[in-house]
């Protein structure tokens, strides 16, 4: 995720350098380069994930899930420190302007135009993922492989290709998340991914591991309860709120809200 | 001669730190190496041990200190026991919640509890003095040894400077001995237990839980025992660290040093093998300390050099996983004393 956000930063500065006009779209705080950079960063992050998969995970696939997890944690530390090596630990900025929240007449709430943009992008990504998983051949193969890898292979599904696609999509989605957080918060740091890790895990457990729709619902619940909790307790404990929800979930319904297995 | 003593003093300092890491590795080896429990919140147990020990045997809050509890100035041994018990209790509750579920849940719960513990230590002034940390934690037998050294040096003013240099470091030698004695005891206990029927049950659970369950073993209970014991060892390491560093704050227990390094050490040393755990701790800490000198001439900024060294450690981990998954010293196939090798 951090990687994606930073690749977007690189692409952004590259595109600005290439002379693509950076006139903000209407009320938004960014323009065409940001949108192009978004897509370039998504593709590059997906590519990086595929390369890491080919070099590292492919060879470890037979050893068992935990070894793979250890390799992934090691890789996360490597990537984060590569980012830190190049850009340093201090925050980097996409745009250095402050955007004023505007009042929406009917609802009576204040919201920044960028935030509406973020909500629309998220909605598009969710709908896109839904169609990919339900309607395309690759999406169906992916769901089959997640249910039962051996059975999928016997049915003639090229599971290696499925795994590659899974990595690419997961990495691109993580990159999209990172960039959107960067647009909302105005800055990105090498450890932004780490800080989001716990809420993400909590969201997935809440929704039930292996269920993308549960994960989306879990993400909404964890995100909202984290923000609402700041009204009652110190903001420093936002990740802790996610953790406590997760623990309660593990006690009462360990398979998650929508888990089936 | 004086330079040589300087290097020797540095090596003592190095060995104390590596020894504390080795204790952590032995703790992880019980959990992961023997039983296959995936704990990625080592830093949490390490921190609980360090803070419990500091609160029990540390000084009462001084001026400019936010703490309102702790500082009972009890003997170090009480602090050590408190650290072991506190880490054990936390592990017991995490284990109770997650050890019946799939292994992923334990991983997520441990990483979560470690992060929550770090947040509490960073924010709750009454307990931990937030980011200012706890200062002046006494080291065991520090005053008598220092007093003995200074009176000895006063009595022998004609000693050559290098000998004075050497003798002034007596306390660190004492602490190294203390760490090594504890490490030795843990190593012996750990080796004895894996060679016992109890240890064989743990290894069976790691290889195939169903087999252990069919043989009439209470898999959950054994896993819980292993998890709690491992966490207790980590708490012990926390106490050893706190009383050596004399100062602790939340930043000492970040996931990089507190958890990731321990994993790299155990995997590169050889998980499931107590010798491997200790060896890994010394080798990786050696590489970490050694690269500090190597990155000097590269003209990098401090954070860049630090990042580069983490990348080196990370790449070493991946290479080990790819090329020698069993680590430098692999696990011994037969551990029973009754069977011939």
Element layout with pairings:
The complex is a heterodimer of chains A (261) and B (341).
Chain A (H helix, E strand, L loop, with lengths): L1 H16 L14 H29 L4 H23 L4 E2 L8 E2 L6 E2 L1 H23 L1 H11 L1 H6 L4 H27 L1 E2 L3 H16 L4 H18 L8 H15 L9
Antiparallel strand pairs in A: 1-4, 2-3
Helix pairs in contact in A: 1-2, 1-7, 2-7, 4-5, 4-7, 5-7, 8-9, 8-10, 9-10
Chain B lengths: L1 H33 L7 H16 L18 H23 L4 H21 L1 H4 L13 H14 L5 H8 L1 H25 L2 H11 L1 H6 L4 H27 L9 H15 L4 H21 L7 H22 L18
Helix pairs in contact in B: 1-7, 1-8, 1-11, 1-12, 1-13, 2-3, 2-4, 2-11, 2-12, 3-11, 9-11, 12-13, 12-14, 13-14
Tell me briefly what this model is:
Chain A has helices at residues 2-17, 32-60, 65-87, 113-135, 137-147, 149-154, 159-185, 192-207, 212-229, 238-252, and strands at residues 92-93, 102-103, 110-111, 187-188. Chain A is mainly alpha-helical.
Provide a descriptive summary of the structure in words.
- The complex is a heterodimer of chains A (261) and B (341).
- Chain A is mainly α and 261 residues long.
- Chain A has ten helices and four strands.
- Chain A has two domains: 188 residues, no CATH class; 71 residues.
- Chain A has a two-stranded antiparallel ribbon with strand order 1-4. Chain A has a two-stranded antiparallel sheet with strand order 2-3.
- In chain A, a hairpin with a 6-residue loop joins β2 and β3.
- In chain A, 32% of the residues are buried.
- Chain B has one domain.
- Helices cover 72% and strands 0% of the residues of chain B.
- The radius of gyration of chain B is 21 Å and the shape is globular.
- The relative contact order of chain B is 0.18.
- Classes of the chains: A mainly alpha (261), B mainly alpha (341).
- The interface between A and B is large, with 39 and 43 residues.
């Amino acid at each position: 995720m951090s990687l994606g956000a930073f690749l977007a930063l690189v692409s952004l500065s590259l595109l600005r350098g290439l002379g693509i006009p950076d006139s903000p779209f209407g009320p938004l705080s960014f323009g065409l380069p940001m949108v192009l950079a978004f897509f370039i960063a998504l593709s590059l992050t997906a590519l990086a994930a595929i390369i890491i998969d080919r070099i590292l995970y492919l060879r470890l696939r037979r050893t068992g899930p935990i070894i793979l997890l250890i390799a992934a944690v090691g890789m996360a530390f490597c990537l984060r420190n590569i980012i830190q090596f190049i850009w340093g630990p201090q925050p980097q900025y996409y745009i250095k302007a402050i955007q004023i929240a505007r009042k929406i007449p009917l609802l009576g709430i204040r919201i920044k135009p960028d935030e509406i943009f973020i909500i629309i992008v998220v909605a598009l990504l969710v709908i896109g993922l839904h169609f990919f998983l339900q309607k395309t051949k690759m999406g169906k193969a992916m769901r089959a492989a997640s249910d039962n890898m051996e059975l999928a292979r016997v049915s003639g599904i090229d599971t290696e290709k499925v795994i590659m696609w899974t990595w690419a999509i997961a990495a691109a989605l993580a990159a999209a998340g990172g960039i959107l957080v960067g647009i909302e918060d105005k800055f990105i740091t090498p450890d932004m991914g780490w800080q989001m890790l716990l809420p993400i895990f909590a969201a997935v457990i809440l929704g039930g591991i292996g269920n993308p729709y549960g994960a989306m619902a879990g993400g909404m619940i964890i995100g909202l309860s984290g923000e609402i909790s700041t009204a009652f307790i110190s903001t420093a404990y936002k990740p802790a709120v996610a953790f406590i929800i997760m623990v309660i979930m593990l006690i009462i319904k360990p398979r998650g809200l929508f888990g089936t297995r | 001669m004086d330079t040589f003593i300087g290097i020797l003093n540095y090596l003592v300092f190095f060995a104390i730190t590596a020894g504390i890491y080795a204790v952590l590795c032995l703790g992880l080896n019980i959990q992961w190496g023997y039983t296959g429990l995936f704990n990625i919140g080592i830093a949490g147990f390490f921190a609980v041990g360090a803070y419990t020990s500091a609160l029990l045997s540390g000084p009462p809050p001084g001026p400019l200190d936010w703490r309102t509890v702790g500082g009972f100035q009890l003997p170090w041994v009480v602090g050590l026991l408190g650290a072991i018990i506190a880490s054990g209790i936390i592990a017991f509750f995490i284990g109770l919640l997650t050890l019946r579920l799939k292994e992923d849940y334990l991983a997520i719960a441990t990483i979560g509890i470690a992060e929550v513990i770090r947040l509490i230590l960073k924010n709750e002034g009454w307990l931990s003095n937030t980011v200012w940390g706890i200062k002046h934690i006494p080291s065991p037998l520090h005053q008598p040894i220092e007093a003995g050294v200074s009176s000895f040096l006063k009595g022998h003013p004609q000693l050559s400077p290098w000998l004075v240099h050497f003798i002034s470091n007596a306390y660190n030698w004492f602490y190294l001995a203390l760490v090594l004695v504890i490490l030795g005891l843990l190593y012996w206990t750990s080796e004895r237990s894996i060679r016992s029927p109890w240890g064989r049950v743990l290894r069976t659970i790691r290889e195939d839980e169903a087999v252990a369950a069919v043989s009439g073993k209470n898999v959950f209970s054994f896993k819980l025992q292993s998890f709690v014991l491992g966490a207790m060892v980590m708490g012990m390491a926390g106490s050893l660290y706190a009383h050596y560093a004399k100062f602790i704050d939340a930043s000492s227990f970040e996931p990089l040093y507190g958890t990731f390094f321990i994993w790299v050490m155990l995997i590169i040393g050889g998980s499931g093998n107590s010798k491997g755990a200790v060896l890994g701790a010394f080798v990786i800490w050696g590489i970490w300390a050694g690269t500090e000198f190597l990155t000097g001439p590269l003209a990098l900024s401090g954070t860049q050099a630090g990042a580069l060294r983490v990348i080196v450690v990370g790449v070493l981990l991946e290479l080990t996983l790819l090329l020698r998954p069993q680590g430098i010293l692999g696990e011994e196939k037969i551990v029973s004393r009754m069977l011939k090798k």
